[in-house]
Each structure stands twice: as C-alpha cells, then as structure tokens.
Amino acid sequence: MVSQAQTEFTDSIKLALKHTPKLDFRIDSRNSFITNQFARILGIKLGLNFNRTVRMGLGYNRLMNDRFTTVVHRYGDGSLERIEAKLKFAYLSPYFEYVFYRDPKWEISIPVLLGFGRALYRYDDRNGTTHQTPWRFLFMYEPYMISQYRITPWFGAGLGVGYRLLLVGNSATDENFNSPMYVLKFNVFPTEIYATYRRLADRE
C-alpha cells in the first residue's frame, strides 16, 4: 500500500512537470513564536506552477513585528550598560509544493521550504550611536499543510499549519526559533489576470 502510494505520488509529479509552467506568485503571513514571544513572518514567493499540481521557486521571509531582548554594551571607557535591542531576522527559502487535492474552488497542498538566513540585534547606545551584534547564520526546515480557496479567477486565500525547525544555528544564538506556525496566505494568479486582460482587449 505504501509502495503504491509512493509510486502514484512520483508519477503525479512527473506528469505535472511535463506541462508548460505558469508564474507562481504568493504572499503569506506565518505566525509563530521566537523564545515564547509572538513572531509574524512575512513571506513573498516567486516561482513556477506546473499544471496546478507542483509549485517550486524561491521565497524571501522577514520578521515583521518588533521583538526585543536585552544586550550588554561596553563603552570605550570600559563602562557597561544593559540596552534593549531589536531582533532582525530574515532568510531566503527555496520551496517545493505538491497539491494532492484540487477542485475548481478548493485545493489542499503540502509545501516544504528550506530557509537560509541570519539573525542579529540592533540597538542605539546612550550617545545615539547605532550598533548591531555579529550576524548568525541559520538554516531551517519548514513543512506545512495548507488549504486554499479561490475567491475569484485572479485571487485566492488560504489557511495552514506547520512547524519551523532550526537545523543549524542553535548554538550560535540565544533564541529558540523552533516553533509551531499557522499560515495566512494570499495568492495572485498573474496568468489569469493577463488572460482576462487579453480577452477584454480583443473585444475593443
């Protein structure tokens, strides 16, 4: 049974990749936690969509809400000060998504992305000088399950759940980036928008 499912999965991907791809563009908001504090990650994805079954491409992700911690700053005279510093966290993410259920309005998919990025803290000292800590390399793995509803032929929205697992960088930062995540996403279908524009233009 497992072997048959794996074969069907592989055949479905191979068949989809034989189709001419369309542009895949999406924006999502992934809500999670970093060291028990709320963290909202904005993601922008651009890639290729093969027969609405396989999607792959590259994304850019960034922490959007303010998330602070306390760092110790040393001045030139040797004095120390504890200062509130803001976390900066961003990463690039190659992604792959497989759609295992689809009808004219709904689809359910399993996206997986790998994240390559960095985290650092930025703060101002009492003299107004801006400093930042050395950046730390992070490598993470994020699997999801997402359901999406096509609101119009040109736009869609979806909900999903997943998990962010930090594979490299745990020892380089005091933060805990491992966290469950829930996803809110908005899809734009550029090819459908263009096709509609062409049909309207041809009528004029």
Written account of the structure:
With 204 residues, this protein is mainly beta. It has a single domain, classed as Beta Barrel (Porin), CATH 2.40.160.20. The chain has two helices and ten strands, in the order αββββββββββα. The chain has helices at residues 2-17, 190-203; strands spanning 22-34, 37-50, 54-63, 68-74, 80-102, 106-124, 130-132, 136-150, 155-168, 179-188. It has an eight-stranded antiparallel beta barrel. The chain is elongated. The N and C termini lie far apart (56 Å).
Give the helices and strands, then pairings.
Layout: H1 2-17, E1 22-34, E2 37-50, E3 54-63, E4 68-74, E5 80-102, E6 106-124, E7 130-132, E8 136-150, E9 155-168, E10 179-188, H2 190-203
Antiparallel strand pairs: 1-2, 1-10, 2-3, 3-5, 4-5, 5-6, 6-7, 6-8, 8-9, 9-10
Report, as a whole number of angstroms, the end-to-end distance: 56 Å
Low-pLDDT segments, ≥5 res = none
Shape: elongated
Rounded to an integer in angstroms, the radius of gyration calculated over CA atoms is 21 Å
User: How much of the sequence is in beta strands?
Assistant: over 45%
Top CATH class:
Mainly Beta
- Give the averaged pLDDT, no decimals: 90
Summing up helix and strand content along with how strands pair, one would put the structural category as: mainly beta
**CATH-derived topology:** Porin
